[in-house]
Recover the amino acids of this structure.
């Protein structure tokens, strides 16, 4: 028996469900590549930012990765213990914690450079579809970010 009033609660009518499952499955497919680097997915995305900018403060890093300090702090401590980053208080404002990539962290980039290509093979979307999905997901992120409380 079906009641139309509850159709909105069916799992097949949820946008969040395929997003959740896709994200979970994609992260799962990253795992073997990241295990070779001794990184989790979240550590990997932090390293991607640092490979690009080399140095940033924790607040900016968190904003870029959509991570709060409760998630970011232990992640950064772990990356620091591996020798990939350094964390230091800003000399001009001690409230600012600056994160810098080390030479060891930078050299990890050479080992990671093939990961996007390998992941592209796992997902195997046509380039046009991948670009459209990318654009749509960032539209959703923009809307969600604008509505944050």
């Amino acid at each position: 028996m079906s009641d139309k009033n509850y159709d909105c609660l069916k799992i097949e009518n949820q946008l969040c469900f395929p997003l959740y499952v896709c994200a979970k499955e994609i992260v799962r497919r990253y795992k073997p590549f990241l295990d070779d680097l001794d990184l989790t997915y979240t550590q990997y995305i932090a390293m991607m930012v640092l490979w690009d900018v080399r140095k940033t403060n924790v607040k900016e890093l968190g904003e870029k990765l959509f991570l709060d300090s409760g998630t970011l702090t232990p992640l950064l401590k772990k990356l620091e213990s591996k020798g990939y980053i350094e964390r230091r208080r800003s000399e001009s404002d001690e409230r600012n914690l600056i994160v810098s990539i080390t030479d060891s962290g930078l050299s990890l980039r050479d080992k990671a450079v093939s990961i996007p290509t390998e992941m592209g093979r796992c997902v195997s979307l046509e380039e046009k579809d991948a670009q459209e999905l990318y654009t749509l997901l960032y539209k959703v992120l923009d809307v969600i970010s604008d509505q944050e409380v």
User: Anything to note?
Assistant: The chain has seven helices and three strands. Residues 33 and 115 are 7 Å apart (CA to CA). The radius of gyration is 19 Å.
